[in-house]
From TrEMBL:
Ranges where the EAL domain occurs: 660-915
Secretion signal, residue range per the UniProt entry: 1-21
Entries under Pfam families matching the protein: EAL, GGDEF, NMT1, PAS_3
The protein's name: EAL domain-containing protein
PANTHER family named in the record: BIOFILM ARCHITECTURE MAINTENANCE PROTEIN MBAA, DIGUANYLATE CYCLASE DGCP
Entry keyword annotation includes Signal: yes
Keyword Signal among record annotations: yes
Domain GGDEF: 518-651
Domain PAS: 361-432
GO biological process: cellular response to nitric oxide
GO molecular function, one term: cyclic-guanylate-specific phosphodiesterase activity
Species annotation: Massilia eburnea
Membrane-traversing stretches: none
Matches recorded under CDD domains: EAL (cd01948), GGDEF (cd01949), PAS (cd00130)
Length: 922
């Protein structure tokens, strides 16, 4: 045991010593966490820094020059900067570039798309965000150089402070902005914003992108740490570019959720052609490229001509510097024999080192080639044969590597894509183009089609010309785009074209009709009684009916005709290229006959019919808007004529529609103009003949038209939404009158107010406003009865139930109007708190002692009393009807026998006259 404890102590001591041995260093980024810095996260999380004896802390940045300031001040040992580091070096800052990550800069200029041909000169006179106004070296130098190359000076456009917010470009606050091609285009694409991108590379300005750098002091004081940090960072970058999805998840889980996963993957994929991890060793930097950058800065006046920048580039492999070798050879010039031996020895060693370097380079290239996240293949330009493919290419193509080498490029292409691709290949072989990109389809052996984005370039080899082909699987993207297009243009239930596609096809047919001189017929179809099917059998069965109706309509027309669903139970049909209009009637009647046949919905059968409006182009209208409006008017004319028929548009329908529109407009001013009047009709207690109840009825006294029937203006009020305001007015007026009559006529007086389904089901507010008004007025809820129709109770929504419960809790009673004419059901009489049943006048009108109407009325009265409900009979016009109803036990009667609806003042006088007579008798 003592030996074990001693060993454990030694182990812990060594572990502590090892942990203390790790150097703490700080890497300062120039922006917030994103895939742009993926290699450093990978190096940290995969333990590459730890293996190198480094404890690395990665800090976010707020602006592009923060890394430069942090490294100069000693707050960080390493940083990430742009090519403007060269200017910082010449200004006296001791900065040294360790490695280049982006072989091509991601900086570019984005502008709102203004036409089919992009033109950089359209920026003249416009507002542009290009770098920070307070720091000319941040995101501005490359773009400014590009504009100057194109002959556009800084004084030819208005430069504003950069917000780095793409919304400013989308909303028109600016017309152009400098961007990262790996970043902002994704946001602009998501917003559907049309834009053009202008890259400085188009003018020969090819800067390096992100560069890893440090200070001269760090290299002098810690040379081993610098080499270790650079090697671990480059290893991290190789891993990150080969495992993009894994590193994206790492960023989301441990660093930042500022960007979503799709955006980080977009950034990763856009970085591949900029970093070029397969073709160029990550970290490689070419002094000639830096000289190119220096020349551009010199042209801009940012750098003196002939300036030297010795020591700016870090020598990652000092062993490859032959300066010392040459000096030795110079000293040994006099010692020819000894020098020759030394020279031979050194050459042998250099050759061995060079061969080893080449071997390692080939091994590294092969490793990156094999592990690349995109498919890469080398294709013989002569016969199209695959000479080499990486595993990802074979996986996308659905074949083994050996199978790929036994076939040609065009063998795996979709037959429809072969011709354009063969043409492009021919242009490439003829050196008319250096490369091309396209979206194409590959055929897998199992018959599946894979969409790929392919980039094909000519490459020189020792033997014959080859093509380098890089592909990326975009099948999921294509399927998503197809789904979005399908959802945008087709109805998801019936798979028919929706309104958008219908309008597009109609516009196309109208243009063709103008050329050919033919006619077009539009059929506007509305299913009659569909709502009743929905209410009784449920929405699922209603959907089944709609699908079957769509099939039946489609079977009645030609394949070239368009059948669409506009929404709900409304369908349209376009019949183009009509030589004779007469056949339209045959098609319309065929549709009506087809839809009149029973629909089998599970165990139930449903019956609907169709009302069809027909309009003809160009006879009835010359544009789409008027055609649809006229077809709609004709459809309503068919409904008004009894449904289950078709109707052509006529000018008279337009006149009627205009009258309805004008009457609706007049109705909007009726409330404010005090044109609405409240009438009351008494509800008489049949046993005593007393009047302690009344129904409030609305009348409209139009200043020009005179008295307008409620049958005419109530539907207009419902369709326009004015019924809600009118209902509020009726309640308030009724409340004032019932307060008076409860005080002067009878303390239990009640007034019934009608509620249309639209008014009852309104989402704006509830009865809380009513109840507050009644409470403020001092009128109890028992003084009001709300009359609703049976159709409301078929809607089992919580909204209807909650409102009925609210009325009950407030003491307001509920009457079921027109009972017996709808889908009468004992279940909802039991389920809901109903106080009164009102027998419809259609039963009262033909009452006779032994008639069926009398039997039905008797049954309704007995049933209601058994359920604890009172009964009111409407339409009582004769004493015989009154006596029969009273004998059957009916509680109340309402009709012309007792009184017609009277203006409020007249009704008030009648009540007081009755009260006086009753007092006299008493």
């Amino acid at each position: 045991m003592p030996q074990f404890l001693a060993g454990l102590f030694v182990f812990l001591l060594l572990s502590a010593s090892s942990a203390q041995a790790q150097d703490r260093v700080i890497l300062q980024l120039k922006h917030s966490h994103q895939f742009q810095f993926a290699g450093y996260y990978a190096a940290l999380e995969k333990g590459y820094y730890r293996d190198a004896g480094l404890d690395v802390q990665i800090l976010e940045g707020n602006d592009g020059n923060e890394p430069e300031r942090a490294v100069v001040d000693g707050r960080a040992q390493y940083g990430v900067g742009s090519s403007s580091l060269l200017l910082a070096r010449l200004s006296g800052k001791p900065l040294v570039v360790l490695a280049v990550i982006f072989q091509h800069s991601p900086y570019a200029l984005a502008m709102r798309q203004t036409g089919p041909a992009p033109d950089i000169r359209s920026i003249i006179g416009k507002r542009a965000m290009i770098g920070s106004l307070t720091d000319e070296l941040t995101q501005a130098d490359e773009v400014i150089a590009y504009l100057r190359k194109e002959g556009i000076g800084a004084n030819q456009f208005v430069r504003v402070e950069h917000s780095f917010n793409p919304d400013d470009l989308v909303k028109g606050k600016v017309d152009a902005m400098s961007i990262y091609v790996t970043n902002e285009p994704d946001y602009l694409d998501r917003l559907g914003f049309p834009y053009d991108i202008y890259s400085p590379r188009a003018a020969g300005i090819d800067f390096y992108g992100d560069n890893l750098f440090t200070s001269e002091a760090e290299i002098k004081n810690h040379p081993d740490r610098v080499r270790a940090f650079r090697a671990a960072s480059m290893r991290g970058w190789q891993y990150a570019m080969s495992h993009q999805e894994e590193v994206v998840d790492l960023i989301l889980n441990k660093y930042s959720r500022q960007h979503d996963r799709m955006h980080l993957l977009y950034e990763a994929r856009q970085m591949v052609p900029l970093v070029q991890p397969v073709l160029v060793e990550i970290g490689y930097m070419n002094p000639d490229r830096w000289q190119h950058i220096a020349d551009i800065y010199t042209e801009l006046g940012m750098m003196p001509k002939g300036a030297t920048w010795n020591g700016f580039l870090y020598n990652a492999d000092p062993g490859s510097d032959l300066t010392l070798l040459y000096r030795v050879l110079g000293v040994a010039a006099g010692l020819l024999v000894l020098g020759g031996a030394i020279h031979f020895s050194l050459l042998t060693r250099e050759r061995t080192r060079a061969e080893e370097t080449i071997r390692k380079g080939e091994q590294r290239f092969r490793t990156m080639f094999e592990a690349a996240p995109m498919g890469i293949a080398l294709i013989d330009s002569g016969d199209g044969q695959f000479r080499d493919v990486n595993p990802r290419f074979a996986e996308i193509a659905g074949r083994s590597a050996q199978e790929m080498r036994n076939c040609r490029w065009l063998d795996i292409c979709h037959p429809d894509d072969v011709a354009p691709e063969r043409e492009k290949m021919a242009q490439l072989s003829a050196q008319q183009i250096t490369g091309f990109k396209l979206e194409t389809r590959l055929m897998r052996p199992d018959g599946r089609i894979v969409w790929v984005e392919a980039s094909i370039n000519a490459v020189e080899t020792e033997s014959q010309p080859h093509h380098l082909c890089m592909i990326e699987d975009i099948t999921e993207k294509k399927e998503t785009e197809a789904l979005i297009w399908q959802q945008a243009n087709f109805d998801t239930l019936t798979q028919l074209p929706n309104r958008r596609m219908f309008l597009d096809r109609l516009q196309h047919d109208i243009l063709k009709s103008r050329r050919d001189g033919t006619r077009i017929a539009i059929l506007f179809i509305d299913l009659d009684h569909f709502k009743e099917v929905n209410d009784t059998l449920g929405h699922h069965q209603g959907d089944v009916l709609l699908v079957e109706a769509a099939r039946r309509i489609g079977a009645c027309v030609r394949q070239s005709d368009t059948v669409s669903r506009l929404g709900g139970d409304e369908f349209t049909v376009i019949l183009p290229e009509l030589a004779e209009v007469d056949r339209v009637e045959d098609i319309a009647q065929h549709i009506i006959d087809s839809l009149r046949m029973p629909f089998q919905l599970g165990q139930e059968q449903a019956f609907v019919s169709a009302s069809i409006g027909i309009t003809i182009y160009p006879d009835d209208a010359g544009n789409m808007e008027d055609l649809l409006k006229h077809a709609d008017q004709a459809m309503y004319a068919a409904k008004g004529a009894g449904r289950n028929r078709f109707s052509y548009f006529t000018p008279a329908l337009q006149v009627a529609a205009l009258n309805r529109m004008r009457l609706t407009n007049d109705l909007r001013g009726a409330l404010k103009g005090n044109q609405l009047k409240l009438y009351f009709q008494p509800i008489v207690h049949l046993q005593t003949g007393k009047v302690h109840k009344a129904e409030a009825l609305i009348r409209w006294e139009h200043p020009q038209r005179g008295m307008v029937s409620p049958l005419e203006f109530i539907p207009l009020a419902e369709s326009s939404g004015l019924i809600v305001d009118i209902g509020e007015w009726v309640l308030r007026e009724s409340a004032h009158w019932v307060k008076r009559w409860r005080a002067e006529v009878h303390p239990g007086f009640q007034v019934s107010v009608n509620q249309s389904p639209m008014e009852f089901q309104r989402e704006r507010g509830s009865y809380a406003g009513w109840l507050a008004f009644l409470q403020q007025l001092g009128v109890p809820g028992e003084s009001i009865v709300v009359e609703i129709t049976e159709g409301l109770l078929l809607d089992a929504s919580t909204s209807v139930t909650d409102k009925l419960l609210l009325l009950r809790d407030a003491g307001i009673q509920v009457a079921l109007d027109d009972f017996g004419t709808g889908y009468s059901s004992l279940s909802y009489l039991k389920k809901f708190d109903i106080d009164y049943l009102k027998i419809d006048r259609s039963f009262t009108r033909n009452l006779a002692p032994d008639s069926s109407d009398m039997a039905l009325s008797d049954a309704i009265i007995v049933m209601a009393h058994k359920l604890g409900l009172s009964v009111i009979a409407e339409g009582v016009e004769t004493t015989e009807q009154r006596d029969l109803l009273a004998a059957a036990g009916c509680d109340y009667g309402q009709g012309y026998l007792f009184a017609r609806p009277l203006p409020a003042a007249d009704f008030d006088a009648m009540l007081h006259q009755q009260a006086t007579a009753e007092a006299t008798v008493a």
